[in-house]
């Protein structure tokens, strides 16, 4: 078992079904998961097994039918919705497949918009945005709009955006799936660094095997539960 003192995000007895009555399909069957602090954890499993659903439940975006989520010591689904939204804004960053950027905004403005929502003053938001873009190697491209960026660069803007929030938790859903070999590897390395160098707890759901060598831990999902855990994968 995991050392509970090091667990920063956990789901216990999570159940979820979609559809009603006889047509209901049970996706999660009392799933338990506990993620160690500052690690890059992957959740792997075939398409349709419920990875995105699990991530959304752990991030406070989709309510489970049963079970609890504890994030940074807070019981996420016992909070009022507004408190949960505020918690998410403050503590969680998100990276999705082909992350969506605003067409009209420059790379640094994408990030500043999010930081503005957090109540961070404009000057500080600019500094944080530029630092985060430099961190993912996009310093010289900070003033470009999405049109002028490659797929890999756009995904690095999304990573910089998640990083600039300085969250404790980062959630990634298939962040490499739309990318070629080189860009997929680059994004994998950045996720690795978020954990190793910035101490962020990163949970990434994916069916992409290319991410595996970068992970500290791999949770294999099967039949709505975590079936097997591989530890000490990376390094
Ligand atoms: N909002 C929804 N309404 C109905 N069915 C859904 C919904 N979200 C997901 N599903 C179904 O739940 C199953 C698991 O989906 P998902 O969590 O996206 O799997 P994965 O991310 O592993 O591919 C799929 O069969 C999907 O069609
Ligand atoms: Mg998915």
From TrEMBL:
Keyword terms of this UniProt record: ATP-binding, Nucleotide-binding, Transport
Family annotation (InterPro entries): AAA+_ATPase (IPR003593), ABC_transporter-like_ATP-bd (IPR003439), ABC_transporter-like_CS (IPR017871), ABC_transpr_LolD-like (IPR015854), MacB-like_ATP-bd (IPR017911), P-loop_NTPase (IPR027417)
Coiled-coil stretches: none
Transport keyword on record: yes
Pfam families recorded: ABC_tran
Any GO molecular function: ATP hydrolysis activity
Residues annotated as domain ABC transporter: 9-233
One CC-aspect GO term: plasma membrane
Signal peptide range: none
PANTHER family noted in UniProt: IMPORT ATP-BINDING PROTEIN, TRANSPORTER, PUTATIVE-RELATED
Stated name of the protein: ABC transporter domain-containing protein
Organism from which the protein derives: Paracoccus contaminans
Lineage: Bacteria, Pseudomonadati, Pseudomonadota, Alphaproteobacteria, Rhodobacterales
């Amino acid at each position: 078992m995991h050392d509970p003192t090091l667990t920063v995000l956990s789901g216990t007895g999570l159940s979820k079904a979609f559809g009603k009555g006889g047509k209901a399909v049970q996706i999660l069957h009392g799933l338990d998961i506990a993620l160690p602090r500052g690690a890059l954890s992957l959740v792997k499993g075939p398409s349709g097994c419920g990875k995105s659903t699990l991530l959304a439940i752990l991030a406070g975006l989709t309510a489970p039918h049963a079970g609890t989520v504890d994030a940074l010591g807070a019981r996420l689904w016992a909070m009022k919705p507004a408190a949960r939204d505020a918690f998410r804004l403050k503590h969680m960053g998100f990276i999705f497949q082909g992350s969506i950027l605003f067409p009209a905004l420059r790379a640094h403005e994408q990030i500043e918009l999010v930081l503005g929502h957090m109540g961070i003053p404009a000057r500080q938001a600019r500094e944080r945005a530029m630092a985060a873009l430099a961190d993912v190697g996009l310093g010289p491209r900070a003033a470009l709009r999405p049109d002028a960026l490659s797929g890999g660069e756009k995904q690095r803007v999304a990573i910089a955006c998640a990083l600039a929030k300085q969250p404790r938790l980062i959630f990634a859903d298939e962040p490499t799936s739309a990318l070629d070999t080189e860009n997929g590897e680059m994004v994998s390395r950045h996720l690795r660094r978020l954990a190793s160098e910035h101490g962020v707890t990163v949970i990434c759901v994916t069916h992409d095997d290319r991410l595996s060598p970068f992970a500290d831990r791999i949770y294999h999902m099967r039949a709505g539960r975590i079936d097997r855990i591989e530890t000490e994968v990376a390094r």
